[in-house]
């Protein structure tokens, strides 16, 4: 599975808890938005994360 900022942004926009987590990562770790999104991907999507299936479905839609 590959990382896509566009797909990840769609997933974040669909889930308030991911949006809140993104804000938390940015403030606590002092990361810029793009790096925070990538960190969120690795913690919630990659390696059988709780949002992996939704991410994959969005990725398929994005690729069509």
Automatic annotation (TrEMBL):
This is Fur-regulated basic protein A. It comes from Bhargavaea changchunensis. The lineage of its organism: Bacteria, Bacillati, Bacillota, Bacilli, Bacillales.
